[in-house]
Amino acid sequence: MTHPTTIPRDHGCGAHLTTALTLAAGGVPVLPLRIHKAPFGNCPACAKNACGGRPNMKQAGPCTCPRPCHAWAAASTDPNVIASPAWAHAWRNATAIAYHPGGVRLTVVDLDNADAITWATQHLPPTRTVPTTRGQHWIYAGTMSSANGVRPGVDIKSRMAYARWLGPGTGRLSALPDAVRALAVKKPMPLRPVSVAAPVGGGTCPHRTPVFLERGIAMAEQQITGAAGGVHATVYRTFLAVLSTHGRCGCLTETHMQRLFAAAQTKGETVRHCTDAWDNARTALGM
Fold first, then answer.
1. In angstroms, rounded to a whole number, what is the distance separating the alpha carbons of residues 68 and 16?
2. Cα–Cα distance, 55 to 259 (Å, whole number)
3. Distance between CA atoms of residues 245 and 45, nearest Å
């Protein structure tokens, strides 16, 4: 799937809709943006996620609301949805068009300034580029987790994110390199030391048994990666269980925590969400 190469010029809200329909016909999921390049807010029926769908926009899949709610999840290729009366108000007030890169198996490296462009030129393979107001979008074939602020002036927009449509760009589309994937993998915060009294009787902590600990971590990884839904809750409960069993005797290491964080990230969790869940579990256990 590639971007369409024949795109009508934008001259007002009518042209935004025309461009959106052209993109959708090429398989690109689109949505309208309002002022400051922000998506339209949820409609009254979906306010505060009363509809029960896409809470905090962290779940994958399209929005079922007839209006362009839930940001990236509202992106659609259905012309009957895009040109529907329910979307008419949004298009009349739209200032730009966005698309869901992950929906066309693309990743956008958003370079926000000249320094970021210089860095990318030195460290990333050349690919299709699109000029932006202050920098460039470098577009690669392939998807990954989206992440903001991976470097000064560098954001990554792919799955569960939207990027502004600024034209098809120039240059040959390259495969998503490991160098870009690595940008989104941040080192987890180290475990905080916990002062715990020695076991009664002066014996060796039973949790230090390597086989016992390894089995526990492996089971926790499987529980996270096997979650069919409610990933946030599953990650928190799993972290809570691991910490309650192994966290008070000093047997957990940063490597164990990294394994759990990595399992959660395969399900779409960000490092920040992993860190929050870990800290919340520690707090709940009085650690």
1. 14
2. 26
3. 43
